[in-house]
Q: What sequence folds into this?
């Protein structure tokens, strides 16, 4: 296992560093301490060609100028919170409203725009990047001082383990995820429309016109939301299902995951032979197919466009604070929040 480090910029007077980890198989993962942002994941295709399989930029300035959350950690709370406020213990907390009067992905300056402390931990068959940040009480409107950590561990088995921890000195909400956009074609040769996705999920969450869960769980039977046996992303794009049309012809929906299932999520690109297996201890995954990606900027020489990549955001349910029947994203004072996800890259 090899690791290299370089200074790539500054933000709010703090130094931004990039670390690149390379394993024995040639897999490379590059990450910034700015937003714990994963900028590159290079893995082989079925012919042995090593290519990048995520969307990202080459400069810090591009990340600062664009708000698509490419590869970044999202927090304090992933997804939308209706009305940009919530009540906890009889107190109403007003959050930053950065999405049509609602709160999205932690607010105006969420975890994705923070410079984190970073420590490198090397083992025989793995290297970990351990990021730490303290979110002060009142940041973006949230209660409690919260100490959070994010650890990315790259192994010789072409795995990336994502571990999130947090602890607060007051009752609050916490729901973190990673917003990496995957495109397994390699170096953005094609869009993700022909990718085949499997999700072991019987229900997805209905969204309202603001793309916030209504509280209704809809069974996937006889819909293009049934990914249990695999389905190409293209099918949701051409679908006339009102929920597909609502989000811009595609998907931006939470799916409830079955518990204790092996390989609950897989993404496959037949032409390259690349297979991504996603496992998690979270109750849900938000499938976002890049329906809001504009074409007004370039991504490493390729014009950005809808469906250029897709996100598999393992997390608690967005807006859970307003729906008592959803798994809670509230954490108690001094309770340790723990979330784990593993990405395994394989050839099929």
A:
């Amino acid at each position: 296992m090899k690791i290299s480090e370089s200074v790539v910029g500054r933000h709010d007077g703090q130094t931004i560093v990039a670390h690149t980890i390379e394993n024995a198989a040639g897999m490379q993962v590059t990450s910034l301490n700015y937003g714990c942002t994963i900028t590159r994941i290079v893995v082989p295709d079925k012919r042995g060609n090593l290519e990048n399989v995520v969307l990202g930029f080459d400069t810090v300035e591009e990340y600062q100028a664009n708000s698509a959350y490419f590869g970044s950690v999202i927090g304090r709370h992933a997804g939308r919170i209706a009305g940009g406020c919530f009540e906890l213990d009889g107190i109403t907390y007003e959050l930053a409203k950065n999405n049509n009067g609602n709160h999205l992905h932690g607010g105006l300056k969420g975890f994705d725009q923070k410079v984190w402390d970073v420590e490198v931990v090397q083992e025989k068959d793995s290297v970990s990047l351990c990021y730490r940040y303290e979110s002060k009480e009142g940041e973006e409107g949230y209660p409690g001082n919260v100490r959070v950590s994010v650890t990315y561990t790259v192994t010789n088995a072409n795995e990336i383990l994502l571990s999130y921890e947090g602890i607060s000195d007051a009752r609050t909400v916490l729901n973190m995820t990673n917003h990496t956009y995957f495109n397994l074609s390699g170096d953005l040769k094609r869009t993700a429309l022909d990718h085949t996705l499997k999700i072991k999920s019987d229900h997805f969450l209905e969204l309202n016109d603001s793309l916030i869960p209504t509280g209704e769980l809809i069974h996937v039977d006889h819909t293009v939301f049934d990914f249990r046996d695999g389905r190409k992303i293209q099918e949701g794009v051409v679908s006339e299902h009102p929920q597909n049309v609502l989000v811009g012809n595609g998907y931006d929906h939470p799916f409830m995951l079955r518990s204790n299932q092996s390989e609950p999520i897989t993404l496959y690109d037949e032409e390259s032979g690349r297979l991504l297996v996603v496992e998690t201890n979270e109750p849900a995954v938000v499938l976002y197919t890049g329906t809001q990606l504009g074409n007004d900027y370039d991504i490493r020489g390729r014009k950005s466009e809808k469906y250029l990549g897709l996100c598999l955001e393992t997390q608690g349910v967005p807006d859970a604070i307003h729906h008592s029947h959803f798994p809670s994203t509230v954490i108690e004072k001094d309770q340790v929040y723990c979330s784990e996800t593993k990405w395994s890259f394989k050839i099929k």
